[in-house]
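User: Some background: our group keeps a shared notebook of sequences we're curious about, and every so often someone picks one and asks for a predicted structure to add to the entry. Today it's my turn. The entry only has the sequence so far, pasted here. Could you supply the structure so I can complete it?
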Amino acid sequence: MKRLFYRFAVSLMIIALTLPISTQAFGGSTDAEARTQLEAFLTQKGILLIKEFYDLGTVPGMYGSEAHFVAVVIYEPGRENQKVKGLKIEITSGGRFEKKESSFLDQEELQELSDAIQYMIRLALEWQGNNRNYTEVVYSTKGDFSIGFFQNGLRQTAFASSGRISKVVCFFSQVQELKKVKSLVDNAQDLLATK
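Assistant: Of course. Here's the predicted structure to add to the notebook entry:
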């Protein structure tokens, strides 16, 4: 089991290290272009901002890791009709050298994320009990959040990660933990629609 996790972690690290280089080399989007509206608004300087945070919950992972979800609403005083809304997902690795990375998703991305997770849940159930070669199913957002599962033989493991260069990964004990993640994403959509 540990060998499989190491293999997956090494794969993520190789992808993470080569992605920014290949994107720049082939005329792809730059960091500034790839930002979400939420990130762009948060990094503005010289303006007064009101930031509202709504704690949605945490999905615990293996080895002390976790994925924490917070709905975010940001606006300038007097410009409440121009609110920027979204979701902050903070991934914490467990273990002795705990690390944290956060990703931001714009409100418009949440339904796609929810739909992707629902598809993964159905696919994992379909594949359950089938002996497969190592296969990954992954959904990634503009804000460097990824979620998915992999199957090797009969074993399935779900994961979530955050970060571009120094990715932090949370492995879930069961693929069905994705249902909890989907529920929190859906709760964020419902809450943000009222703010």
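Suggested note for the entry: DSSP finds five helices and eight strands in the chain. Residues 19 and 44 are 26 Å apart (CA to CA).
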